[in-house]
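seq/struct pair 1
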Amino acid sequence: MSKQWLVALGVIATLALGGFALTRANDEGIVGVGARAPDARVEVLATGDTVALRDFVAGHVTLVNIWATWCGPCRAEMPSMEALYKDYAARGFKIAAVSIDEGSADPVRAFVRQYALTFDILHDPTGAIQGVYQTTGVPESFLLDRDGRIVARKIGAHDWNSAANRQLLDRLLADGS
């Protein structure tokens, strides 16, 4: 067999194995666009109740944002999240912002007051949600459709009030997805 044929067969085998690996990764629960959002137990800051995040957001187009009060980029994106929420909440849009601040929720409550946030603030003082959602840091956000599927994943601060995000929300809310 010629050297060219060996190279060609090697490329084909690599592509086949790569496709198999990607399929297995999705089967193994890689958190990404198209996957069902994983579940996590979190505390609702307003009530102190512990809830399953999946139940909390069920049936809503939801932005799950994992953040912390000490995170500068988190602070930077909160106003755009609030503006988006004010314009879309009445249409069925939710924000579930999960703070990973350790210890008491008092600093989180102070942050909410300082930024006049009106969307749902959740708290996971253990930070376990970071492992469940396979985050790389904070902030990290996951936009979910009504079926709990991830339609967008953003790492780092993001302008959630941008025209592109508004168009995406308009489509998701109109689809009834």
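seq/struct pair 2
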Amino acid sequence: MAYHGLLNLFFRDVTDAALDHGAGIHKYVGDEAILTWRAEDGLEQARCVLCAFAVRRRIVSKAGAYRQRFGMVPEYRAALHIGTVVAGEMGDLKREIAFVGDTLNTAARLLAIGRELGRDTVASMKLLDRLALPAGLAREPLAPIALRGKEHAVTVAALHGA
């Protein structure tokens, strides 16, 4: 199936960028990948931010191959957030290590907000306030966003090349 081949190639590009930036791949969910870092590792030299842009560069550099093989180039969005995650084994019949908590919920909602606002990469200010953006990247503050399940609006910024 062509769609499976497209996802597999896309996830290879994500994996290469993750490995280059010290990320772990927690899970694939449909056509999304959840990458994780220990906080200090992801913050170091803004590796979590650089990883998001490295994935995009890989896809752009292979656009011709994607187009030739699949007739299209995949779109890519990223949402970045920081916080505590609880990890544990879940299930009886089908066991898996699951990450749960507000951090993952917030990141998933930020991804949806990025899609709605037409922004490819969004990050919470909670994360951005803890790191220096690398040269060549800029942040565009967005209006505070009320997220379902959150008592207070979350402050976010879109990230893009300067």
